[in-house]
Amino acid sequence: MKKFVVSSMVLAASTAAVHAQSYLTISGSVYGGLGFNSGGAALRTALAGTSSFMISGKEDMGGGLAALVKLENGFNADTGTTASSTFFDKQAFLGLQGSWGTVRMGRLYTPSFATLALVGDPTATYGVFTATNLMESHAVRLNNGIIYNSPGFNPWTYGRNGFYGALAHYFGESATGGASQNSATGFNLGYGNSALTLEISHHQGNTYTNATLDVDAKSTILAANYKWSKARFFFAYSDNTARNVITKAKTKDNTDFLLGISYPLGSGVLSASYIRKNNQLLPENDAYQIGAMYEHYLSKRSKVTLGFAKIHNRNPARPHRVSNGYAGTTATTAGTAALALGLTHRF
């Protein structure tokens, strides 16, 4: 990891007043590997998967107050292209942190997705059997957001210590219609220590497409992980609904359930999970996923990963698919089973 100190003389060239030094860090990860995906139209293989780099900075302004900034981009190491049309597609925010908590503004993860990724999923939603293959993603990240995190959770380090909570709102900034269009609100409450983390989150948002397609969605997720001896056990349950506010018709009504485990083995970690989706709408597309992964650490920053995922669909006409960067597929090319072998280096 490289750290760059920007002196006050450099900052003075672009700002009117400088009160303290700023410390910038460039970090990230590069992933390369081979993914095999079957159960779709044809057997597909792909090199590499999603990688990322991040520019982050923290300035101590005295009195316990600090300014924060993070800019993170996802890219594909096999082609050098960005992972999406948005350059800083993963995170782009600035904020203030003090003894009273942290406020951030910009492109931010939703509290509910953070609950799934940081508490409930043994893969942290990275890997071929990520929970988001089957579970609701709870909007992942949204633009035009502002979020408050109370003391007890540090969004800079993701550390948890005692009770904490968060409240977030994402402004729709719709060109037409009211302020509620394409907006979202979410919160979480939790408790965490080295052995146990327990968290509940709620997310509700609007997706406005046109005058006849205006959908309100809600999801609530309860997640926990607990360390017993060397193993850490994971649990998540999510209830998800959506309704077209124009036609009053339900467009989503399902629940998700996850059980997982991670266990240190040799020079690495073995993890696995079982996920089940129960859909209440007709026609049903209930499904379950099983997956496992072994991460062998070559050093503190480099590891080799071998992972497998398989989805069983109750209704083959409406299948859920294994689609993520580590399998080298998208929703249109993915099948229902995947095997991935790759190398990751963090810097």
- State the share of residues found in helices, binned by percent: under 10%
Output the CATH topology: Porin
- Tell me the strand order in the biggest sheet: 2-4-5-6-7-8-11-12-13-14-15-16-17-18-19-20
* Average pLDDT over all residues: 89
Taken together, the total number of domains comes to 1
What string gives the helices and strands in order?
EHEEEEEEHEEEEEEEEEEEEE
Overall outline: globular
Describe what this molecule looks like in 3D:
With 347 residues, this protein is mainly β. The chain has one domain: Porin, CATH 2.40.160.10. Helix content is 4%, strand content 59%. It has two helices and 20 strands. It has helices at 8-12, 111-120; strands at 2-6, 22-38, 44-47, 50-62, 65-76, 91-98, 101-109, 141-149, 153-154, 159-160, 162-170, 184-192, 196-210, 213-228, 231-244, 250-265, 268-279, 287-297, 302-313, 337-346. The chain has a 16-stranded antiparallel barrel with strand order 2-4-5-6-7-8-11-12-13-14-15-16-17-18-19-20. A two-stranded antiparallel sheet has the order 9-10. A hairpin with a 2-residue loop joins β6 (91-98) and β7 (101-109). The model is unreliable at 1-18 (pLDDT under 50).
